[in-house]
User: Which sequence fits this backbone?
């Protein structure tokens, strides 16, 4: 029941915002809801080992004839990502407080709706429920970029929507295939874990699920939607996409792909690692050539994601621990970088790097903050514990 509250608090907040007319009150209410969610999450985090698992899980029959249950639970991996989501949400909401925005009610309702859907993704233990929350998280960010985005937002948003929707459909096909393999016809994750799947079938399921997760991360060469979308999106949209949404793909690979298709992971994992490392090099070189600050951050994010993907398919305790740590740290620092980029653009009316000299002389405290966030982002791939294990 406690896990259900994590989904309901932001969802109720989104519905509440629709009844408020004053823009300032809308923003303050959204912030209050997100802080309430954060306080509740911190309570669960610090008392996690003392709370009975029965209070952290909920399994209700939904469509029993199809094996679809409303099954959610909070465990160690999902708890960290729920914490990340709820730490970043107040920051993302605060990032728009000083800006003049259109359709404020709709914007902050969509942010809270997306927060609710993201939590649903991280706590779902039924494949169809996971898929529903996965798709639900796409809807708010689609409209956020489409309505509040920059130039060429229509074409860029359409590309983003088609990419992610297509990948999701392949994931759904994989889930239906797994459903057919279960003895009792179930979409429950624990039923998928218990299956003895042939090598050929595992490979098919592996590639279908990998496509969905690789697009969402995004992993090279399925990354082409990302730089334009991050750059075109409003700052709050860029924060949601980079800080939280890309973690859906990484989480999905750890939670669903590795345990369900271990033979296929062993067979094809090295190829995925090659693509991941290629993406690191490719995105890093492109980042060096960028003149737009947001585009530079977008490509550097692809490089970080490639490192996380390589860690996932290295498949050892050190690499997976490192991936989980980097997911959390990357979310914090990339949101900080996009916030810095937004402040710079607000004050200078440009994101062109070659036009931004002399900031240190005019804004010393801001420069220190920027430097700390930047060094933290640089340190991410260096400090992860799995790197040494991966190359030894």
Assistant:
């Amino acid at each position: 029941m406690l896990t259900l509250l994590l989904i309901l608090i932001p969802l109720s907040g989104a519905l509440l915002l629709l009844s408020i007319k004053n823009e300032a009150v809308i923003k303050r209410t959204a912030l209050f809801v997100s802080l309430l969610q954060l306080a509740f999450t911190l309570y669960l985090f610090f008392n996690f080992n003392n709370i009975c698992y029965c209070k952290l899980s909920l399994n209700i029959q939904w469509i029993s004839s199809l094996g679809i249950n409303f099954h959610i639970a909070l465990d160690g991996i999902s708890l960290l990502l729920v914490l990340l989501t709820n730490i970043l949400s107040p920051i993302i909401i605060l990032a728009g407080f000083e800006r003049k925005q259109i359709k404020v009610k709709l914007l902050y309702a969509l942010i809270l709706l997306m927060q609710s859907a993201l939590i649903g993704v991280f706590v779902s233990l039924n494949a169809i429920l996971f898929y529903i929350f996965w798709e639900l998280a796409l809807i708010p960010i689609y409209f956020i970029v489409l309505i509040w985005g920059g130039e060429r937002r229509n074409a860029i948003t359409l590309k983003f929507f088609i990419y992610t929707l297509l990948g999701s459909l392949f994931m759904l096909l994989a889930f239906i295939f797994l459903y057919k393999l279960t003895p009792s016809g179930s979409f429950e994750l624990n039923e998928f874990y218990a299956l003895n799947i042939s090598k050929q079938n595992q490979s098919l399921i592996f590639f279908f699920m990998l496509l969905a997760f690789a697009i969402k991360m995004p992993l090279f060469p399925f990354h082409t939607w990302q730089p334009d979308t991050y750059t075109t999106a409003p700052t709050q949209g860029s924060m949601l996409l980079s800080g939280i949404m890309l973690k859906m793909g990484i989480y999905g690979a750890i939670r669903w792909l590795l345990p369900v298709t271990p033979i296929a992971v062993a067979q094809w994992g090295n190829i995925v690692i090659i693509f991941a490392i290629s993406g690191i090099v490719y995105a890093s070189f492109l980042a060096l050539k960028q003149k737009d600050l947001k585009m530079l951050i977008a490509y550097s994010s692809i490089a970080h994601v490639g490192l996380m993907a390589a860690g996932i398919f290295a498949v050892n305790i050190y690499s997976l621990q490192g991936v989980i740590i980097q997911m959390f740290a990357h979310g914090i620092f990339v949101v900080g970088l996009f916030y810095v980029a937004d402040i710079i653009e607000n004050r200078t009316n440009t994101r062109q790097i070659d036009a931004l000299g002399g900031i240190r002389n005019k804004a010393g405290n801001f420069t220190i903050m920027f430097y700390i966030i930047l060094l933290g982002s640089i340190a991410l791939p260096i400090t992860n514990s799995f790197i040494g294990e991966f190359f030894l």
Remarks:
- Confidence is low (pLDDT under 50) at residues 385-392.
- The chain has 17 helices and two strands.
